[in-house]
């Protein structure tokens, strides 16, 4: 058993160290076209995940009561309700008035310089993109773009700039909603239709529009490369689930801009790239529009959004782990590492790795093989399923393998706690 545990932990540790980075596309100082300002989102792996999270304490709204049923996708009222494919030229003309440039000034505490017990505060300017959501002046963008700013500047394609206030943020999904505060003409504010990204297919042509490197109104095109990707974010300790992967060229400054289908409808909000240099390398990611549809009402009304919480840590089963545990080589599931105190998982008696009383060894815990009758291949499947199909207060049935015995455990999902401990090396906390 000791050998099994050592092998399990060794494999998880090895898999948690990777040779790539996922970078947020924050942008740069305006008018500067050299190297952009970028923050690293990930420099480690994603196999060891923890299904616990926290709340955005900058907002005081009641996120618990504002949660929207995940299945209730509704389409916003847009001015471009087309059902046929457009040419690239026609698509750009159709949507260019709906994509804006966002400039934010955020505080950056310098922990190396402490004055009267407080770190010296500096400021930096971030430049990115956004998309008009409705006629009331609501605009969707990325949380990492607005940061801790309370107000931002919004510039439309006609060159007019308006002030806007940040009214809602979800750092875990990397979404923010801002609203114009200056007088503006409703006739010139043209919202886009938000499509349901669950209908996207690999190989489907898409378009990205934004302000890479401060170059306004830039359009690129590509295809949907894959769906359901996880984007770990050490700034929050959690991952954005179900991200859309694309090969459309997106760079720093594209953050918050729309990923569009060929009908000119929003299918995602561009948020990150996989790059060793900080510039486009063929792998970009967008927050799926299904997440936008699910969260937007709560963000507008309450300023925050609460995610369902399971409360475990674990990793996907690899062939070596499976064989070491006496299972078939291709056994699929999620090995539970630990169970959070007070969590739904603890209340349902889910068991993680435990210490044997009579020896200095550990005992393998439960292996989750399914949820609500859906087979799990990896921890990615579990995270994505909970995020898309579950809300606070929902029941969930986990199918587990406990030392060779198959059983079902029922639990009631809770809202994520207000704070969590920082992840240890090799661990990432995820929704």
Structural descriptors:
alpha+beta; elongated; disordered N terminus; 431 residues; disordered C terminus; six-stranded antiparallel barrel
Task: Explain what this protein looks like in three dimensions.
The protein has eight helices and 26 strands. It has helices at residues 2-15, 63-66, 88-95, 143-146, 289-302, 319-324, 344-347, 379-389; strands spanning 22-24, 40-42, 48-50, 99-115, 118-132, 138-141, 151-155, 161-170, 175-180, 205-210, 218-233, 238-246, 258-260, 266-274, 284-288, 308-309, 312-316, 334-339, 354-355, 362-363, 367-371, 374-375, 395-402, 405-412, 414-415, 428-429. β4 and β5 (118-132) form a beta hairpin. The strands form five sheets. Strands 3, 17, 18, 21, 22, 23, 24 and 26 form an eight-stranded mixed beta sheet that branches. It has a six-stranded antiparallel beta barrel with strand order 10-11-12-15-14-13. Helix content is 15%, strand content 37%. The radius of gyration is 22 Å and the shape is elongated. It is α+β, with helices and mostly antiparallel strands. The longest helix is centred in the first third of the chain and has 14 residues, at 2-15. Mean pLDDT is 78; it is low at 1-20, 26-61, 65-82 and 419-431.
Major sheet size, sense and barrel closure: 8 strands, mixed
Mean pLDDT: 78
- Low-pLDDT residue intervals, each spanning 5 or more residues: 1-20, 26-61, 65-82, 419-431
Distance between the first and last residues' Cα = 31 Å
- Structural class based on helices, strands and sheet pairing: alpha+beta
Strand proportion, as a percent range, falls in 35-45%
Tell me the radius of gyration. 22 Å
User: Can you give the helix content as a percent range?
Assistant: 10-25%
| Number of helices in the DSSP assignment | 8
Describe the global form: elongated
- How many beta-strand elements? 26
């Amino acid at each position: 058993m000791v050998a099994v545990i050592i092998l399990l932990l060794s494999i998880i540790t090895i898999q948690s160290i990777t040779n790539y980075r996922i970078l947020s596309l924050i942008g740069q100082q305006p008018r500067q076209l050299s190297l952009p300002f970028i923050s690293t989102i990930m420099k480690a792996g994603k196999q060891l995940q923890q299904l616990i999270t926290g709340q955005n304490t900058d907002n005081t709204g009641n996120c618990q009561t504002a949660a929207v049923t995940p299945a209730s996708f509704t389409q916003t009222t847009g001015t471009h309700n087309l059902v046929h494919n457009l040419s690239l030229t026609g698509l750009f003309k159709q949507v260019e008035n709906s994509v804006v440039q966002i400039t934010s000034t955020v505080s950056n505490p310098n922990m190396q310089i402490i004055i009267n017990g407080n770190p010296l505060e500096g400021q930096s300017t971030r430049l990115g993109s956004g998309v008009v959501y409705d006629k009331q002046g609501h605009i969707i963008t990325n949380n990492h773009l607005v940061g801790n700013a309370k107000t931002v500047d919004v510039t439309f394609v006609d060159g007019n700039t308006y002030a806007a206030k940040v009214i809602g943020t979800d750092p875990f999904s990397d979404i923010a909603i801002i609203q114009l505060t200056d007088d503006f003409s409703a006739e010139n504010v043209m919202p886009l239709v938000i499509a349901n990204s669950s209908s996207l297919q690999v190989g489907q042509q898409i378009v990205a529009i934004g302000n890479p490197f401060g170059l306004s109104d830039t359009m690129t095109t590509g295809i949907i490369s894959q769906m359901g990707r996880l984007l770990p974010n050490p700034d929050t300790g959690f991952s954005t689930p179900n991200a859309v992967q694309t090969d459309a060229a997106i760079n720093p400054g594209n953050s918050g801009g729309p990923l569009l289908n060929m009908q000119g409808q929003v299918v995602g909000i561009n948020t990150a790239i996989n790059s060793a240099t900080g510039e486009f390398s063929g792998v970009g990611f967008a927050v799926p529009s299904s997440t936008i549809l699910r969260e937007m009402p709560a963000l507008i009304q309450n300023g925050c959004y609460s995610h369902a919480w399971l409360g475990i840590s674990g990793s996907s089963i690899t062939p070596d782990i499976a064989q070491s545990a006496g299972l078939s080589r291709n056994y699929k599931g999620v090995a539970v590492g630990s169970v959070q105190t007070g969590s739904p998982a603890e209340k349902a008696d889910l068991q993680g790795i435990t210490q044997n009383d009579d020896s200095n060894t550990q005992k393998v815990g439960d292996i989750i093989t399914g949820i609500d009758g859906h087979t799990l291949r990896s921890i990615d499947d579990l995270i994505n399923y909970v995020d898309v199909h579950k809300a606070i207060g929902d029941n969930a049935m986990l199918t587990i393998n406990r030392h060779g015995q198959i059983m079902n455990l029922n639990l009631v999902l809770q809202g994520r706690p207000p704070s969590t401990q920082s992840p240890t090396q090799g661990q990432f906390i995820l929704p």
